[in-house]
Write a structure and sequence with these properties.
Elements: H1 9-26, E1 29-34, H2 40-51, E2 56-62, E3 76-80, H3 83-86, E4 94-99, H4 105-115, E5 119-128, H5 158-165, E6 175-181, E7 190-195
Parallel strand pairs: 1-2, 1-4, 2-3, 4-5
Antiparallel strand pairs: 5-7, 6-7
Helix pairs in contact: 4-5
């Protein structure tokens, strides 16, 4: 099993299975990561793709230049800046998007709304840190909204963002919830969705 950085073993297993599934369905992996940080997850994705002989192309978005992977893996593009802005610079599509950037409600929702159009039909969107709280990080502040910064320590906004988007409750007809890693035992939590259809615009 590949190592994907700061994740629990059950989360490693889910990523392993997603990559296998994407190879079977698409023949190759095109991966976009929102929140590269130290590149641990990225290295794991490349390692897993190599293990199963899956061609890979990838890109990442993060707010600081020092989060740029070093060395850069092959067929990789790094976009430096706030994820709220960088989506405008990406002109290609992906079969897997991992949203693991800012954990407030606003960014969680905007990252999905801005980047999910870059996902191919049948592609997968994976959210990390979907637990209500992270035990080992409970002294850190992950506010539910930027307006609550400093007032809600240990709280993650990702899950609340998924509720506001209607994804968690299954209200959207264009997305299907595929799997959730339990978040009731101190793990950070993951939720996987699949894009099932394109919504038509309103004339």
């Amino acid at each position: 099993m590949a190592s994907y950085g700061n994740m629990a073993p059950a989360e490693y297993d889910l990523l392993d299975r997603i990559i296998l599934r994407i190879k079977a369905e698409f023949g190759s992996l095109s991966f976009l990561e929102i929140g590269v940080c130290d590149g641990g997850c990225l290295r794991g994705v490349y390692e897993r793709a190599q293990e199963i002989n899956c061609p890979i192309r990838a890109a990442g978005v993060d707010c600081l230049e020092h989060y740029k992977p070093n060395p850069m893996p092959p067929n990789y593009t790094f976009y430096c800046g706030d994820s709220m802005d960088q989506w405008r610079n990406i002109k290609t599509t992906f079969s897997l998007i991992l949203i693991d950037g800012c954990h407030c409600v606003n960014h969680s929702m905007c990252d999905f709304l801005n980047y999910s159009p870059l996902l191919v039909m049948g592609g997968y969107c994976l959210f990390h840190d979907t637990a209500i709280a992270i035990n080992q990080f409970e002294q850190m502040e992950f506010p539910q909204d930027h307006s609550l910064a400093g007032k809600d320590p240990g709280k993650l906004g990702v899950r609340e963002g998924l509720k506001k988007l209607g994804l968690l409750q299954g209200y959207r007809t264009d997305w299907e919830l595929i799997e959730e890693i339990p978040n009731d035992s101190g793990m950070m939590g993951m939720i996987l969705f699949q894009k099932t259809k394109e919504l038509s615009g309103i004339a």
